[in-house]
Specification:
418 residues; alpha/beta; seven-stranded mixed beta sheet; 12 strands; 46% helix; 17% strand; globular
Length: 418
């Protein structure tokens, strides 16, 4: 399957192979579990504001449909490629199975730089992508959500385009949309809240006093900012954060509310007056109790894994740690890892809640949603921690073992269509 050749897909496959060996999955079943069910590549010509026409490549990968419709985000980024999208779809499969959601994993993306495009250009690109995807998406087929470079407005445009095609309003075609269009209360905060909740549980398991801890957060987008705010609410001191413009450090602690207001007013954290600038490389190596990579993939590598100085490593991003780095971290028992397929699962869990609410046209309060979210995360947390201790394996192997084994068993039960 050379079409998926990409460092991130290779990384996801290496993780799968380790767990498949641990679970003793027969070779005859591995490719069916590993490779995507469907992959779509589309060409998206749109008219730019200057009157010229530009062609953008778009992708959607549906990893498996064994347990229900596929579910996953849509990202707009200059580096989007088919192999990266396929890896993210695979991770989403294990994440959904791990948390007991009736989904397979999916992911989509458009290779573009939304920071250099007007709102009108992004809207035209989004609507054209949706139109091209209509044969392959639907509330019982594939449901999109926001990811890097997309947001509630993007989902509103997708919902509108699909609804116009169907001839009636279909809010369940996407999640992460505005509350006024059938979005769920608590969806925007769900991933960050889940990350902070699991850090709290990891602190209990490792004997760390969260109220006296220090935290570093790489990435100050939706996930990173909510994580930082939630950790501060638990009593942790946020000593460093970063965004695409760089890192910012204050050993005395940063005011997260001031950071959020500054970023909203200035379009980023550059020039924030209450901190000193540091590089992303320096930020990851700062001495701290909690390190939260909440940006893109492959940030913790063999080059820096041995130098990280934290007690809890909470993977809020997808695939932030390479397999080579995992081998190093596995030899560092002082670091408690919360793997990405569990750590950032809060977003897809509340996306599931939004989908269910849309299908029933019956909506819940935010307190109900947060309570249900924490119940699901707690159940998954206990199961993974127990498996780690029982079999003396890493947290990543435990988490992936639960997710992969559930998909494997479901495929065996359904059988192979002639």
């Amino acid at each position: 399957m050379d079409i998926y050749k990409h460092p991130t897909f290779d990384m996801a496959c290496r993780q799968f192979d380790v767990v498949a060996d641990h679970l003793q999955i027969p070779d005859s079943h591995r490719d069916r579990l590993k490779y995507p069910k469907r992959s779509m590549t589309v060409a998206l010509p749109i008219r730019l504001d200057d009157g010229s026409v530009k062609l953008f490549p778009g992708y959607r990968v549906q990893h498996h449909l064994t347990l229900g419709p596929t579910k996953g985000g849509l990202r707009y980024h200059p580096d989007v490629a088919l192999g990266e999208v396929a890896a993210l779809a695979m991770w989403m499969s294990w994440k959904c199975a791990l948390t007991g959601l009736p989904y397979g994993g999916a992911k989509g993306g458009i290779t573009c730089d939304p920071t250099k495009m007007s709102r009108g250009e992004i809207e035209r690109l989004t609507r054209r992508f949706t139109q091209e995807m209509i044969p392959f998406i639907g509330p019982q087929v594939d449901v999109m959500a926001p990811d890097v470079g997309t947001n509630e407005q993007t989902m509103a445009w997708i919902m509108d385009t699909y609804s116009v095609h169907e001839g009636n309003t279909v809010p369940s075609i996407v999640t992460g949309k505005p509350v006024g269009l059938g979005g769920s209360l608590g969806r925007r905060e769900a991933t960050g809240r889940g990350v902070a909740y699991l850090i709290n549980r990891a602190a209990d398991a490792s004997g760390l006093n969260l109220g006296k801890s220090t935290a570093v957060v790489q990435g100050f987008g939706n996930v990173g900012s909510v994580t930082a705010s939630s950790l501060a609410h638990y009593g942790a001191k946020i000593i460093a954060v970063s965004d695409v413009q760089g890192g910012f450090y204050n050993p005395k602690g940063l005011d997260v509310s001031a950071l959020e207001k500054y970023a909203a007013q200035h379009g980023g954290l550059a020039g924030f007056p209450e901190a000193e600038p540091i590089t992303n490389e320096q930020l990851l190596l700062l001495p701290c109790d909690i390190l939260v990579p909440a940006a893109l993939e492959r940030q913790i590598t063999a080059a820096n894994a041995g130098k990280i100085q934290c007690r809890i490593l909470a993977e809020a991003a997808n695939g932030p740690t390479t397999p080579d780095a995992d081998e190093i971290l596995n030899q560092r028992p002082e670091i408690f890892l919360i793997p990405d397929v569990l750590c950032n699962a809060g977003g897809v869990v509340v996306s599931y809640f939004e989908w269910v609410q849309d299908l029933q046209s019956f909506f819940w309060s935010e307190s109900e949603i947060v309570d249900k979210l924490f119940r699901i995360l707690e159940s998954s947390w206990v199961q993974i921690l127990d498996l780690k201790r029982k079999e003396n394996i890493s947290m990543r192997t435990a988490a992936l073992s639960v997710g992969i084994s559930r998909v494997f068993e479901a495929k065996k039960q359904r059988g192979l269509f002639p």
